[in-house]
Write a structure and sequence with these properties.
The complex is a heterodimer. By secondary structure, chain A is an alpha/beta fold. Chain A is built from five helices and five strands. Helices cover about 45% and strands about 20% of the residues of chain B. Classes of the chains: A alpha/beta, B alpha+beta. At the A-B interface, helix 1 of A face helix 2 and helix 3 of B.
């Protein structure tokens, strides 16, 4: 079973994402902080990360930098789920492992699961 | 020629200058709670608990999305001084259709209908797609509670005399400020509903200013027509 790490500081949003992703058949681990995410990534080796962009203390960009500094972690695909999607360009973040950007203000329930599936499909050798 | 009941709108800079920073901060602060409301309402809509729960979920989501549109517009308006908005040829029919498509569910939930009315041949225009859509969405949002006796609000595209511009707007059956009041002061502080804050209309006005469009209000026999005039594109082959 694939494991999805959710990094989201709003507890209710995190719980909602967890329900949706679990219902689609994935194992979910979640944290509200980027520094805790690093520990979870080391311990649990998630297959994909759903990452909020605006996190307190250690930022999402710091987490993305940290992932890229380790060759094994750099391969983990990241899906940003953010309320600042309008100011982000996927091409600018592709080098940080970001594969998709979902806008919190418009995303539909199925979009998140679809994005995860698409990322897995892209990673699966044909 | 501008008629007695027609008033162009201009001078949005003062809206951006007068206490706008605090409004933008508030808008930023509201984004997350509104996104949470929206997310949880999406789950309610899919709930197996029954039609009533799903209907409540839909109403909460539509309300949250309406508020999110305004917070997004406000935060973007705050960045106008440092941004450029490239204009491009646009299919005016598609712009109007996409606006109707986006806001129709909100109208439906309120028991109203947004009807699209335009000539078969509405010329292409030169504008900024996103901002133009958001101007029209603000007009449609403002008109939501002012449908005519049949429950209709009309979104309309008109070729203007001289054929050098297209007027895109929203016609509703609602009340409007008195012409005398419009003439007395800056139009952008007064051209909304007597009982409303007109914040969305002010945002629409500042968007129009950013893309070189002209917004205005026409008082018609049955209601109000909020519009933006945009130039016709001569680069038809690029569409």
């Amino acid at each position: 079973m694939h494991t999805v790490l959710i990094v989201e500081d709003n507890v209710w949003l995190s719980e909602s994402y967890t329900r949706i992703v679990q219902a689609a058949g994935y194992r979910v681990i979640a944290t509200a902080a980027a520094d805790k995410a690093i520990d979870l990534i080391d311990d649990e080796a998630p297959d994909v990360i759903l990452l909020d962009m605006l996190l307190p203390k250690t930022t999402a960009m710091a987490l993305l930098h940290e992932l890229q500094s380790h060759s094994d972690l750099a391969r983990i695909p990241v899906i940003l789920v953010t309320s600042v999607a309008y100011s982000l360009q996927l091409k600018d973040l592709a080098n940080y492992g970001v594969r998709k950007i979902l806008d919190k203000e418009t995303v539909a329930l199925d979009d998140m699961v679809e994005a995860i599936k698409e990322v897995f499909d892209e990673n699966t050798p044909h | 020629m501008v008629s007695r009941h027609e008033q162009a709108v201009g001078g949005s800079e003062s809206f951006l200058e007068n206490g706008f920073d605090s409004i933008v901060v508030a808008a930023h602060e509201l984004k997350t709670p509104l996104a949470v409301m929206r997310q949880l309402s999406l789950e309610l809509e899919r709930s197996p608990e029954g039609a009533d729960t799903q209907r409540l979920g839909r109403q909460i989501r539509l309300t949250a999305e309406r508020s999110l549109r305004l917070t997004r517009d406000l935060t973007q308006a705050s960045r106008f001084q440092s941004e450029l908005f490239p204009l491009e040829p646009l299919n005016s029919r598609l712009v109007l259709s996409s606006v109707v498509q986006e806001i129709a569910p909100l109208y439906d939930a309120h028991g109203r209908r947004l009807v699209l009315r335009m000539p078969r041949r509405l010329p292409n225009i030169v504008s900024h797609s996103d901002l133009l859509r958001r101007i029209l969405l603000n007009f449609a949002d403002n008109a939501l509670h002012y449908a005519d006796e049949k429950g209709l609000v009309v979104i309309e595209g008109i070729v203007m005399r001289g054929h050098d511009k297209v007027r895109l707007g929203v016609l509703d059956g609602g009340p409007h400020v008195a012409t005398k009041r419009v003439q007395r002061s800056r139009i952008h502080t007064d051209y909304g509903r007597p009982e409303g804050s007109e914040l969305g209309l002010k945002v629409a006005e500042s968007f129009a200013h950013a893309i070189g469009g002209t917004t205005g209000l026409m008082h018609k026999k049955k209601g109000s027509f909020y519009y933006i005039d945009v130039p016709i594109s001569t680069q038809l082959s690029l569409i």
